[in-house]
Amino acid sequence: MSPLRRPVNRHASYHAHLYFDARTEALARGLVEQARERPGLSVGRLHRRLVGPHSAWSCQLSFDQQQFDGVIFWLEAERDGLSVLVHGVTGDDLRDHTEFAYWLGEPLPLKLSIFGAEADPGLDQHKE
């Protein structure tokens, strides 16, 4: 298996999806509260259901390339075992969640068929 792709700052804007379940929800809520205190970081809802291509409960954070290094450093330091998908936002959802996708922690499968992909490649979107 190829190593995980670490986040690379090469886009104008980004999403980070924090993944959690019933066991880790309190941890995720704490991280989201910290995120709300970070200037310029946009925080979405904490979804206790599957949304979009995500295979776990999630919360989306939005940030730009100027915030990238600080947000990635903070997420890596504070995620405490939570999986985080970081991807560029280019307007091409399929490429954003495959070619431009990076992981902090354990990668989770994504339901790429919602973007018109022929077949879901499972975890292959995190390989180089």
Number of E-state strands: 5
Low-pLDDT stretches: 122-128
Tell me, what's the shape? globular
Architecture in CATH? 2-Layer Sandwich
- Total domain modules: 1
The oligomeric state of the chains shown is single chain
Q: Quick check: average pLDDT?
A: 89
Distance between the termini: 10 Å
Helix-strand pattern, N to C? EHEEHEHE
| Secondary structure: helix percent | 10-25%
What's the story with the biggest beta sheet?
5 strands, antiparallel
Rg, alpha carbons: 14 Å
CATH homologous superfamily grouping: DOPA-like domains
- Please identify the top-level CATH class: Alpha Beta
CATH topology heading: Alpha-Beta Plaits
Strand content: 15-25%
SS element count, helices: 3
Question: Structural class, judged by helices and strands?
Answer: alpha+beta
GO molecular function, one term: dioxygenase activity
Protein name: 4,5-dioxygenase
Keywords: Dioxygenase, Oxidoreductase
Pfam families: DOPA_dioxygen
Task: Write up this protein.
By secondary structure, this protein is α+β, with helices and mostly antiparallel strands. The chain has helices spanning 25-36, 68-78, 93-96, and strands at residues 13-20, 42-47, 57-64, 84-88, 101-104. It has one domain (13-126): 2-Layer Sandwich (Alpha-Beta Plaits), CATH 3.30.70.1240. The protein has three helices and five strands.
Key structural traits:
128 residues; alpha+beta; Alpha-Beta Plaits; five-stranded antiparallel beta sheet; 3 helices; globular; disordered C terminus; dioxygenase; oxidoreductase
